Amino acid sequence: MSNFSIFALARNAMSYHENWQKQWRSPAPKASYDAIIVGGGGHGLATAYYLAKEHGMRNIAVVERGWLGGGNTARNTTIVRSNYLWDDATHLYEKALQLWEGLSQDLNYNTMFSQRGVMNVGHSLQDMRDIERRVNANRLNGVDGVVLTPAQIKAMVPIMNTSSSLRYPVMGASFQPRAGVARHDAIAWGFARAADRLGVDIIQNCEVIGVQREGDQVVGIETTRGVIKSKKIGVVAAGHSSVIANMAGIRLPLESHPLQALVSEPMKPILHTVVMSNAIHAYASQSDKGDLVIGAGIDAYVGYGQRGSFPIIEHTLQAICELFPIFRRVRMNRQWGGIVDVAPDACPIISKTHIKGLYFNCGWGTGGFKATPGSGWVMAHTIAQDRPHALNAAFELNRFNTGHLIDEHGAAGVAH
Ligand code: FAD
Ligand code: PYC
What we know:
Number of domains: 2
Order of helices and strands: HEHEEHHEHEHEEHEEEEEHEEEEHEEEHH
Number of strands: 19
Largest sheet: 8 strands, mixed
CATH topology of the largest domain: FAD/NAD(P)-binding domain
Strand order of the largest sheet: 5-6-4-14-15-16-13-17
Radius of gyration: 22 Å
Distance between the termini: 56 Å
Strand content: 15-25%
Number of helices: 11
CATH class of the largest domain: Alpha Beta
Bound molecules: flavin-adenine dinucleotide, pyrrole-2-carboxylate
Protein backbone atom coordinates (compact mmCIF):
# COMPACT_ATOMS: atom_id res chain seq x y z
CA MET A 1 0.00 0.00 0.00
CA SER A 2 1.47 3.40 -0.96
CA ASN A 3 1.94 6.20 1.56
CA PHE A 4 -0.73 8.12 -0.25
CA SER A 5 -3.43 5.55 0.40
CA ILE A 6 -2.35 5.17 4.03
CA PHE A 7 -2.80 8.94 4.49
CA ALA A 8 -6.13 8.85 2.68
CA LEU A 9 -7.30 6.07 4.95
CA ALA A 10 -6.16 7.98 8.04
CA ARG A 11 -7.92 11.14 6.77
CA ASN A 12 -11.13 9.17 6.18
CA ALA A 13 -10.92 7.64 9.64
CA MET A 14 -10.41 11.10 11.18
CA SER A 15 -13.35 12.66 9.37
CA TYR A 16 -15.55 9.70 10.25
CA HIS A 17 -14.58 10.22 13.90
CA GLU A 18 -15.23 13.99 13.73
CA ASN A 19 -18.61 13.52 12.04
CA TRP A 20 -19.58 10.98 14.62
CA GLN A 21 -18.60 13.36 17.42
CA LYS A 22 -20.48 16.25 15.80
CA GLN A 23 -23.55 14.13 15.37
CA TRP A 24 -23.54 13.33 19.08
CA ARG A 25 -22.40 16.72 20.40
CA SER A 26 -24.89 17.60 23.12
CA PRO A 27 -27.33 20.37 22.22
CA ALA A 28 -27.43 23.48 24.42
CA PRO A 29 -30.25 23.03 26.90
CA LYS A 30 -33.48 24.92 26.19
CA ALA A 31 -34.84 27.25 28.87
CA SER A 32 -37.64 24.84 29.73
CA TYR A 33 -38.99 21.37 29.02
CA ASP A 34 -42.22 19.48 29.71
CA ALA A 35 -40.12 16.89 31.54
CA ILE A 36 -36.45 16.45 32.47
CA ILE A 37 -34.77 13.14 33.27
CA VAL A 38 -31.65 13.40 35.44
CA GLY A 39 -29.15 10.64 34.62
CA GLY A 40 -28.11 9.33 31.21
CA GLY A 41 -27.69 5.68 32.16
CA GLY A 42 -29.83 2.92 30.67
CA HIS A 43 -32.77 3.56 33.00
CA GLY A 44 -32.87 7.34 32.37
CA LEU A 45 -32.56 6.96 28.60
CA ALA A 46 -35.20 4.20 28.58
CA THR A 47 -37.52 6.48 30.57
CA ALA A 48 -37.07 9.26 28.00
CA TYR A 49 -37.61 6.85 25.11
CA TYR A 50 -40.86 5.43 26.51
CA LEU A 51 -42.09 8.93 27.50
CA ALA A 52 -41.72 9.92 23.85
CA LYS A 53 -42.87 6.65 22.30
CA GLU A 54 -45.71 5.57 24.60
CA HIS A 55 -46.91 8.91 26.00
CA GLY A 56 -46.25 11.28 23.09
CA MET A 57 -44.11 13.67 25.17
CA ARG A 58 -41.45 15.10 22.86
CA ASN A 59 -40.32 18.30 24.60
CA ILE A 60 -38.12 16.44 27.05
CA ALA A 61 -34.44 16.33 27.98
CA VAL A 62 -32.04 13.87 29.58
CA VAL A 63 -29.23 15.60 31.50
CA GLU A 64 -26.11 13.59 32.28
CA ARG A 65 -23.15 14.86 34.29
CA GLY A 66 -20.62 12.74 32.38
CA TRP A 67 -21.14 10.70 29.24
CA LEU A 68 -23.99 8.37 28.31
CA GLY A 69 -23.78 5.01 30.04
CA GLY A 70 -20.62 5.95 31.98
CA GLY A 71 -22.20 4.88 35.28
CA ASN A 72 -23.38 1.43 36.29
CA THR A 73 -24.90 0.75 32.89
CA ALA A 74 -21.47 0.12 31.37
CA ARG A 75 -19.92 -1.26 34.58
CA ASN A 76 -22.23 -4.18 35.18
CA THR A 77 -21.95 -7.84 34.30
CA THR A 78 -25.14 -7.84 32.16
CA ILE A 79 -27.06 -10.71 33.72
CA VAL A 80 -30.72 -10.59 32.71
CA ARG A 81 -33.23 -12.86 34.48
CA SER A 82 -36.66 -12.65 36.08
CA ASN A 83 -36.51 -15.47 38.65
CA TYR A 84 -37.32 -13.38 41.72
CA LEU A 85 -39.22 -14.76 44.71
CA TRP A 86 -42.08 -12.36 45.43
CA ASP A 87 -44.98 -11.65 43.05
CA ASP A 88 -44.40 -7.88 42.80
CA ALA A 89 -40.73 -8.28 41.94
CA THR A 90 -41.33 -11.17 39.55
CA HIS A 91 -44.01 -9.27 37.60
CA LEU A 92 -41.77 -6.21 37.21
CA TYR A 93 -38.66 -8.15 36.14
CA GLU A 94 -40.68 -10.43 33.87
CA LYS A 95 -42.14 -7.36 32.09
CA ALA A 96 -38.55 -6.23 31.58
CA LEU A 97 -37.50 -9.65 30.26
CA GLN A 98 -40.38 -9.62 27.77
CA LEU A 99 -39.29 -6.17 26.57
CA TRP A 100 -35.69 -7.48 26.23
CA GLU A 101 -36.99 -10.23 23.93
CA GLY A 102 -38.05 -7.65 21.31
CA LEU A 103 -35.68 -4.80 22.16
CA SER A 104 -33.19 -5.04 19.29
CA GLN A 105 -36.07 -4.82 16.80
CA ASP A 106 -37.85 -2.08 18.72
CA LEU A 107 -34.74 0.13 18.98
CA ASN A 108 -33.32 -0.98 15.62
CA TYR A 109 -30.03 -1.53 17.47
CA ASN A 110 -28.35 -4.82 18.28
CA THR A 111 -28.47 -5.20 22.07
CA MET A 112 -26.74 -8.60 21.71
CA PHE A 113 -29.31 -10.11 24.07
CA SER A 114 -28.35 -13.77 24.33
CA GLN A 115 -30.76 -16.13 26.11
CA ARG A 116 -28.15 -18.68 27.17
CA GLY A 117 -29.78 -19.33 30.57
CA VAL A 118 -28.79 -18.47 34.13
CA MET A 119 -27.93 -21.07 36.75
CA ASN A 120 -28.07 -20.24 40.48
CA VAL A 121 -26.07 -22.87 42.36
CA GLY A 122 -26.92 -24.13 45.88
CA HIS A 123 -24.33 -25.42 48.35
CA SER A 124 -26.34 -26.44 51.42
CA LEU A 125 -29.68 -28.02 52.26
CA GLN A 126 -31.06 -24.58 53.11
CA ASP A 127 -29.84 -23.19 49.75
CA MET A 128 -31.68 -26.05 48.02
CA ARG A 129 -34.90 -25.44 49.98
CA ASP A 130 -34.74 -21.76 48.98
CA ILE A 131 -34.04 -22.68 45.34
CA GLU A 132 -36.98 -25.11 45.21
CA ARG A 133 -39.28 -22.56 46.82
CA ARG A 134 -38.21 -19.86 44.36
CA VAL A 135 -38.57 -22.09 41.28
CA ASN A 136 -42.07 -23.14 42.45
CA ALA A 137 -43.02 -19.48 43.01
CA ASN A 138 -41.66 -18.59 39.55
CA ARG A 139 -43.67 -21.32 37.85
CA LEU A 140 -46.84 -20.26 39.62
CA ASN A 141 -46.22 -16.82 38.10
CA GLY A 142 -45.69 -18.26 34.61
CA VAL A 143 -41.92 -17.67 34.71
CA ASP A 144 -39.75 -20.47 33.32
CA GLY A 145 -37.45 -22.34 35.68
CA VAL A 146 -36.28 -25.82 36.69
CA VAL A 147 -34.32 -27.34 39.56
CA LEU A 148 -31.19 -29.18 38.44
CA THR A 149 -29.38 -32.06 40.17
CA PRO A 150 -25.55 -32.08 40.36
CA ALA A 151 -25.50 -34.64 37.51
CA GLN A 152 -27.65 -32.38 35.32
CA ILE A 153 -25.38 -29.44 36.16
CA LYS A 154 -22.32 -31.48 35.16
CA ALA A 155 -23.94 -32.41 31.87
CA MET A 156 -24.60 -28.73 31.09
CA VAL A 157 -21.31 -27.32 32.42
CA PRO A 158 -18.69 -30.10 32.29
CA ILE A 159 -15.92 -27.78 33.50
CA MET A 160 -17.66 -27.22 36.86
CA ASN A 161 -16.31 -29.14 39.86
CA THR A 162 -19.42 -30.83 41.28
CA SER A 163 -17.49 -33.16 43.60
CA SER A 164 -19.07 -33.63 47.04
CA SER A 165 -15.66 -33.02 48.69
CA LEU A 166 -15.64 -29.33 47.77
CA ARG A 167 -15.48 -26.78 50.60
CA TYR A 168 -18.89 -25.61 49.35
CA PRO A 169 -20.25 -28.73 47.61
CA VAL A 170 -22.57 -28.24 44.62
CA MET A 171 -25.91 -29.70 45.72
CA GLY A 172 -28.09 -28.48 42.85
CA ALA A 173 -29.17 -25.31 41.09
CA SER A 174 -32.07 -23.38 39.68
CA PHE A 175 -31.96 -22.74 35.94
CA GLN A 176 -33.94 -20.14 33.98
CA PRO A 177 -33.56 -20.93 30.26
CA ARG A 178 -34.95 -17.57 29.00
CA ALA A 179 -32.44 -15.62 31.08
CA GLY A 180 -29.04 -14.56 29.73
CA VAL A 181 -26.74 -11.66 29.03
CA ALA A 182 -26.70 -8.57 26.78
CA ARG A 183 -24.24 -5.92 25.73
CA HIS A 184 -24.28 -3.20 28.39
CA ASP A 185 -23.26 -0.07 26.48
CA ALA A 186 -25.51 -1.05 23.57
CA ILE A 187 -28.43 -0.51 25.90
CA ALA A 188 -27.43 3.07 26.61
CA TRP A 189 -26.67 3.74 22.95
CA GLY A 190 -29.76 1.96 21.64
CA PHE A 191 -32.13 3.88 23.90
CA ALA A 192 -30.25 7.15 23.30
CA ARG A 193 -30.46 6.86 19.51
CA ALA A 194 -34.11 5.84 19.56
CA ALA A 195 -35.02 8.68 21.97
CA ASP A 196 -32.99 11.14 19.88
CA ARG A 197 -34.93 10.10 16.76
CA LEU A 198 -38.15 10.97 18.62
CA GLY A 199 -36.84 14.47 19.39
CA VAL A 200 -35.51 14.05 22.94
CA ASP A 201 -32.62 16.42 23.84
CA ILE A 202 -29.74 14.44 25.33
CA ILE A 203 -27.37 16.78 27.15
CA GLN A 204 -24.06 15.39 28.37
CA ASN A 205 -21.51 17.12 30.65
CA CYS A 206 -24.41 18.70 32.50
CA GLU A 207 -24.40 18.02 36.23
CA VAL A 208 -27.40 18.78 38.39
CA ILE A 209 -26.27 20.85 41.38
CA GLY A 210 -29.60 22.10 42.72
CA VAL A 211 -33.33 21.43 42.58
CA GLN A 212 -35.69 24.41 42.48
CA ARG A 213 -39.05 24.33 44.27
CA GLU A 214 -41.92 26.75 44.66
CA GLY A 215 -43.65 25.53 47.77
CA ASP A 216 -44.45 21.87 47.26
CA GLN A 217 -44.05 22.01 43.42
CA VAL A 218 -40.74 21.34 41.67
CA VAL A 219 -40.02 24.02 39.04
CA GLY A 220 -36.54 23.36 37.70
CA ILE A 221 -32.95 22.27 38.15
CA GLU A 222 -29.70 24.15 38.54
CA THR A 223 -26.98 22.60 36.44
CA THR A 224 -23.39 23.27 35.46
CA ARG A 225 -24.89 24.53 32.16
CA GLY A 226 -27.39 26.87 33.79
CA VAL A 227 -30.93 26.71 35.14
CA ILE A 228 -33.42 24.55 33.22
CA LYS A 229 -37.12 24.87 34.06
CA SER A 230 -39.61 22.02 34.21
CA LYS A 231 -42.56 21.01 36.36
CA LYS A 232 -41.79 17.30 35.92
CA ILE A 233 -38.38 16.00 36.95
CA GLY A 234 -37.49 12.31 37.08
CA VAL A 235 -34.28 11.48 38.94
CA VAL A 236 -32.68 8.28 37.64
CA ALA A 237 -29.14 8.63 38.97
CA ALA A 238 -28.18 5.27 40.51
CA GLY A 239 -25.65 5.51 43.33
CA HIS A 240 -26.18 9.27 43.68
CA SER A 241 -29.95 9.45 44.18
CA SER A 242 -29.64 10.49 47.83
CA VAL A 243 -27.34 13.37 46.88
CA ILE A 244 -29.94 14.77 44.47
CA ALA A 245 -32.81 14.02 46.86
CA ASN A 246 -30.93 16.06 49.45
CA MET A 247 -30.92 19.04 47.07
CA ALA A 248 -34.74 18.89 47.13
CA GLY A 249 -34.88 18.45 50.91
CA ILE A 250 -35.80 14.74 50.77
CA ARG A 251 -34.08 11.92 52.68
CA LEU A 252 -34.14 8.55 50.90
CA PRO A 253 -33.71 5.21 52.71
CA LEU A 254 -30.67 4.22 50.63
CA GLU A 255 -27.02 3.34 51.12
CA SER A 256 -24.44 3.69 48.33
CA HIS A 257 -21.95 0.81 48.10
CA PRO A 258 -19.20 -0.16 45.65
CA LEU A 259 -19.81 -3.37 43.70
CA GLN A 260 -16.88 -4.91 41.85
CA ALA A 261 -16.36 -6.94 38.71
CA LEU A 262 -13.49 -8.05 36.51
CA VAL A 263 -12.82 -9.57 33.10
CA SER A 264 -10.17 -11.99 31.90
CA GLU A 265 -8.15 -12.27 28.73
CA PRO A 266 -10.31 -13.55 25.85
CA MET A 267 -10.53 -17.31 25.35
CA LYS A 268 -12.23 -19.74 23.00
CA PRO A 269 -15.85 -20.51 24.00
CA ILE A 270 -15.88 -22.75 27.08
CA LEU A 271 -18.68 -21.52 29.35
CA HIS A 272 -22.02 -21.52 27.55
CA THR A 273 -24.35 -20.34 30.28
CA VAL A 274 -24.24 -17.99 33.27
CA VAL A 275 -23.29 -19.55 36.62
CA MET A 276 -24.01 -17.69 39.85
CA SER A 277 -23.59 -18.54 43.51
CA ASN A 278 -24.99 -16.27 46.16
CA ALA A 279 -23.44 -18.32 48.98
CA ILE A 280 -19.85 -18.04 47.79
CA HIS A 281 -20.31 -14.52 46.37
CA ALA A 282 -19.13 -15.27 42.86
CA TYR A 283 -20.55 -15.59 39.39
CA ALA A 284 -19.16 -16.00 35.89
CA SER A 285 -20.19 -15.97 32.26
CA GLN A 286 -18.24 -15.70 29.01
CA SER A 287 -18.79 -12.73 26.74
CA ASP A 288 -19.15 -13.06 22.96
CA LYS A 289 -15.62 -11.59 22.78
CA GLY A 290 -14.36 -14.51 24.88
CA ASP A 291 -13.57 -12.77 28.18
CA LEU A 292 -14.70 -14.37 31.40
CA VAL A 293 -16.98 -11.84 33.10
CA ILE A 294 -16.72 -12.31 36.85
CA GLY A 295 -18.40 -10.45 39.69
CA ALA A 296 -18.31 -10.31 43.45
CA GLY A 297 -20.67 -9.66 46.33
CA ILE A 298 -21.10 -6.07 47.42
CA ASP A 299 -18.37 -4.23 49.39
CA ALA A 300 -19.72 -3.96 52.94
CA TYR A 301 -18.74 -0.32 53.48
CA VAL A 302 -20.47 2.71 51.97
CA GLY A 303 -18.58 4.94 49.54
CA TYR A 304 -18.37 6.54 46.11
CA GLY A 305 -14.97 5.24 44.94
CA GLN A 306 -15.52 3.35 41.69
CA ARG A 307 -12.78 0.83 42.50
CA GLY A 308 -13.76 -1.29 45.49
CA SER A 309 -11.46 -2.99 47.96
CA PHE A 310 -8.97 -5.79 47.43
CA PRO A 311 -9.98 -8.74 49.69
CA ILE A 312 -13.43 -8.96 48.08
CA ILE A 313 -12.03 -9.73 44.65
CA GLU A 314 -9.45 -12.13 46.11
CA HIS A 315 -12.23 -14.14 47.80
CA THR A 316 -14.31 -14.14 44.65
CA LEU A 317 -11.45 -15.52 42.59
CA GLN A 318 -10.77 -18.23 45.20
CA ALA A 319 -14.41 -19.28 44.88
CA ILE A 320 -14.29 -19.21 41.06
CA CYS A 321 -11.12 -21.32 41.01
CA GLU A 322 -12.67 -23.88 43.35
CA LEU A 323 -15.77 -24.14 41.20
CA PHE A 324 -13.85 -24.05 37.89
CA PRO A 325 -10.33 -25.46 38.45
CA ILE A 326 -9.65 -25.05 34.71
CA PHE A 327 -9.68 -21.24 35.18
CA ARG A 328 -6.74 -21.21 37.62
CA ARG A 329 -4.24 -20.16 34.96
CA VAL A 330 -6.43 -17.60 33.22
CA ARG A 331 -5.08 -14.04 33.42
CA MET A 332 -7.38 -11.26 34.52
CA ASN A 333 -7.32 -8.14 32.36
CA ARG A 334 -9.35 -5.42 34.12
CA GLN A 335 -11.11 -4.81 37.44
CA TRP A 336 -13.46 -1.96 38.38
CA GLY A 337 -16.27 -0.94 40.69
CA GLY A 338 -19.61 0.80 40.28
CA ILE A 339 -21.68 2.55 42.93
CA VAL A 340 -25.05 0.95 43.53
CA ASP A 341 -27.71 2.28 45.88
CA VAL A 342 -29.36 -0.30 48.07
CA ALA A 343 -32.76 0.01 49.78
CA PRO A 344 -33.41 -1.85 53.07
CA ASP A 345 -35.45 -4.55 51.28
CA ALA A 346 -33.07 -4.82 48.30
CA CYS A 347 -35.88 -3.67 45.99
CA PRO A 348 -36.13 -0.58 43.82
CA ILE A 349 -37.98 2.66 44.52
CA ILE A 350 -39.96 3.89 41.49
CA SER A 351 -42.08 6.58 42.97
CA LYS A 352 -43.72 9.98 43.18
CA THR A 353 -42.57 12.07 46.15
CA HIS A 354 -44.37 14.51 48.42
CA ILE A 355 -42.97 17.25 46.16
CA LYS A 356 -45.33 17.59 43.20
CA GLY A 357 -43.66 16.77 39.89
CA LEU A 358 -40.55 15.16 41.45
CA TYR A 359 -40.10 11.43 40.86
CA PHE A 360 -37.35 9.00 41.83
CA ASN A 361 -36.18 5.76 40.27
CA CYS A 362 -33.41 4.25 42.39
CA GLY A 363 -32.44 1.56 44.89
CA TRP A 364 -31.85 -1.17 42.30
CA GLY A 365 -28.84 -2.32 44.28
CA THR A 366 -26.87 -5.01 42.51
CA GLY A 367 -29.64 -5.96 40.09
CA GLY A 368 -30.96 -3.11 37.93
CA PHE A 369 -29.40 -3.84 34.55
CA LYS A 370 -31.85 -6.62 33.79
CA ALA A 371 -34.70 -4.25 34.62
CA THR A 372 -33.61 -1.42 32.30
CA PRO A 373 -36.43 -1.56 29.71
CA GLY A 374 -39.12 -2.40 32.28
CA SER A 375 -37.88 0.27 34.66
CA GLY A 376 -37.98 2.93 31.93
CA TRP A 377 -41.42 1.74 30.82
CA VAL A 378 -43.04 2.04 34.27
CA MET A 379 -41.14 5.23 35.16
CA ALA A 380 -42.40 6.87 31.96
CA HIS A 381 -45.96 5.90 32.90
CA THR A 382 -45.50 7.27 36.43
CA ILE A 383 -44.19 10.62 35.15
CA ALA A 384 -46.66 11.02 32.28
CA GLN A 385 -49.77 10.01 34.28
CA ASP A 386 -48.57 11.29 37.66
CA ARG A 387 -49.45 7.93 39.19
CA PRO A 388 -47.70 4.57 39.30
CA HIS A 389 -48.46 1.77 36.87
CA ALA A 390 -49.85 -1.40 38.48
CA LEU A 391 -46.40 -2.95 37.95
CA ASN A 392 -44.61 -0.39 40.16
CA ALA A 393 -47.39 0.45 42.63
CA ALA A 394 -45.74 -1.76 45.25
CA PHE A 395 -42.40 0.00 44.75
CA GLU A 396 -43.49 3.45 45.97
CA LEU A 397 -41.65 5.28 48.76
CA ASN A 398 -44.61 4.94 51.13
CA ARG A 399 -43.79 1.24 51.65
CA PHE A 400 -41.17 2.38 54.16
CA ASN A 401 -44.00 3.99 56.19
CA THR A 402 -46.57 1.23 55.81
CA GLY A 403 -44.06 -1.58 56.34
CA HIS A 404 -45.10 -3.34 53.10
CA LEU A 405 -41.52 -4.21 52.20
CA ILE A 406 -40.76 -6.69 49.38
CA ASP A 407 -37.79 -8.53 50.79
CA GLU A 408 -35.74 -9.96 47.94
CA HIS A 409 -32.46 -10.24 49.87
CA GLY A 410 -32.54 -14.02 49.86
CA ALA A 411 -33.33 -14.31 46.16
CA ALA A 412 -30.80 -11.77 44.92
CA GLY A 413 -28.31 -13.46 42.66
CA VAL A 414 -25.48 -11.70 44.41
CA ALA A 415 -25.05 -10.76 48.05
CA HIS A 416 -26.27 -7.29 49.09
P1 FAD B 1 -26.36 4.43 35.82
O1 FAD B 1 -25.97 3.73 34.58
O2 FAD B 1 -25.36 4.50 36.94
O3 FAD B 1 -26.84 5.88 35.41
C1 FAD B 1 -27.00 6.92 36.34
C2 FAD B 1 -26.40 8.16 35.71
O4 FAD B 1 -26.69 9.29 36.54
C3 FAD B 1 -24.88 8.08 35.61
O5 FAD B 1 -24.50 8.11 34.24
C4 FAD B 1 -24.39 9.29 36.39
O6 FAD B 1 -23.27 9.92 35.81
C5 FAD B 1 -25.64 10.19 36.38
N1 FAD B 1 -25.64 11.18 37.47
C6 FAD B 1 -25.35 10.97 38.77
N2 FAD B 1 -25.44 12.13 39.44
C7 FAD B 1 -25.80 13.08 38.53
C8 FAD B 1 -26.04 14.49 38.62
N3 FAD B 1 -25.92 15.17 39.78
N4 FAD B 1 -26.39 15.16 37.49
C9 FAD B 1 -26.52 14.50 36.30
N5 FAD B 1 -26.29 13.18 36.16
C10 FAD B 1 -25.94 12.48 37.27
N6 FAD B 1 -27.55 -5.61 37.39
C11 FAD B 1 -28.08 -6.71 36.77
O7 FAD B 1 -29.29 -6.79 36.58
N7 FAD B 1 -27.27 -7.73 36.34
C12 FAD B 1 -25.94 -7.73 36.56
O8 FAD B 1 -25.24 -8.66 36.15
C13 FAD B 1 -25.38 -6.63 37.26
N8 FAD B 1 -24.06 -6.62 37.53
C14 FAD B 1 -23.50 -5.55 38.13
C15 FAD B 1 -22.12 -5.54 38.32
C16 FAD B 1 -21.49 -4.41 38.81
C17 FAD B 1 -19.99 -4.43 39.02
C18 FAD B 1 -22.27 -3.25 39.12
C19 FAD B 1 -21.60 -2.00 39.63
C20 FAD B 1 -23.66 -3.25 38.97
C21 FAD B 1 -24.29 -4.40 38.47
N9 FAD B 1 -25.67 -4.45 38.26
C22 FAD B 1 -26.23 -5.55 37.64
C23 FAD B 1 -26.53 -3.32 38.65
C24 FAD B 1 -26.82 -2.40 37.45
O9 FAD B 1 -25.61 -2.06 36.81
C25 FAD B 1 -27.53 -1.13 37.87
O10 FAD B 1 -28.63 -1.42 38.73
C26 FAD B 1 -28.08 -0.40 36.64
O11 FAD B 1 -27.12 -0.34 35.62
C27 FAD B 1 -28.52 0.99 37.01
O12 FAD B 1 -28.77 1.70 35.81
P2 FAD B 1 -29.04 3.24 35.85
O13 FAD B 1 -29.30 3.70 34.48
O14 FAD B 1 -30.07 3.51 36.90
O15 FAD B 1 -27.69 3.82 36.48
O1 PYC C 1 -28.99 -9.41 39.70
O2 PYC C 1 -28.50 -11.13 38.46
C1 PYC C 1 -28.18 -10.15 39.14
C2 PYC C 1 -26.77 -9.81 39.27
C3 PYC C 1 -25.74 -10.54 38.83
C4 PYC C 1 -24.62 -9.87 39.15
C5 PYC C 1 -24.95 -8.73 39.78
N1 PYC C 1 -26.29 -8.71 39.84
